[in-house]
Write a structure and sequence with these properties.
With about 210 residues, the protein is an alpha+beta fold. Helices cover about 30% and strands about 30% of the residues. It has a single domain, classed as Nuclear Transport Factor 2, Chain: A (Roll). Strands 1, 2, 3, 4, 5 and 6 form a 6-stranded mixed β-sheet that branches. The longest helix has 15 residues. The chain starts with a helix and ends with a helix. The N terminus is likely disordered.
């Protein structure tokens, strides 16, 4: 119950954050390799499924909505089965319904605007385990990659700092285009057993 009140507090904190704060590069950006960087952010040609996950990670921590969108196919949709059941029980089942690529882009844009890089009032840092997972499935044109993640959300107050962790496992179903390379078709999210707050619940705050 304390966590639920804490999440309501997060919503209130999010509401008062400015939506037009300019940002600089996030010092917490995770780097497992050194793909090209520049004004357009860090991006590597998605010639392999794992590169898509790396690009998504960089896009999140650099708050680069254009590069984030490039990770998704036009037929993309997001699902969070356990969270959608809970939302339905709370009378908010609509939150996870019809979550297509346009919804995902809009939600992520709001997140980036409310947690700009270099902000003194709030921060957001994503970590994804980029190492190979034995349950991954790949062939010439499709792939399913499963990755553990943690998303740290921090609000800095005058008297205290509030930190919330979203922890879970993301499953990315991908396909390969002859022109664009690999991209994500389906993104499924589930919480870690030791946490009741995950990436999907955080994203839902911005829908």
């Amino acid at each position: 119950m304390r966590r639920k009140f804490r999440y309501l507090g997060m919503v209130a904190a999010i509401a008062v954050l400015g939506l037009a704060i300019a940002g600089c590069k996030n010092p917490f950006t995770h780097r497992s390799s050194e793909p090209p960087t520049g004004l357009s952010g860090t991006w590597e040609v998605p010639s392999m499924p794992r590169v898509v996950i790396s690009n998504l990670l960089f896009a999140y921590n650099e708050r680069n909505i254009n590069n984030f969108r490039r990770c998704l196919s036009d037929s993309f949709f997001f699902s969070a089965y356990e969270d959608s059941i809970e939302a339905e029980q709370n009378g908010q089942g609509w939150i996870y319904q019809n979550w297509d690529v346009d919804v995902e882009a809009a939600v992520t844009r709001r997140m980036f605007q409310n947690y700009p890089s270099g902000s003194d009032s709030a921060s957001m840092n994503l970590v994804i385990d980029l190492s190979y997972n034995p349950i991954d499935q790949e062939n010439d044109s499709t792939a399913v990659l499963v990755r553990a993640y943690s998303l740290m959300i921090v609000h800095y107050g005058a008297l205290a700092t509030d930190t919330v962790m979203a922890v879970g496992e993301a499953t990315f179903a991908m396909s390969r285009s002859s022109l664009e390379g690999w991209s994500i078709d389906i993104w499924s999210d589930r919480a870690d057993l030791d946490f009741d707050f995950d990436w999907a619940k955080f994203k839902a705050l911005f829908r």
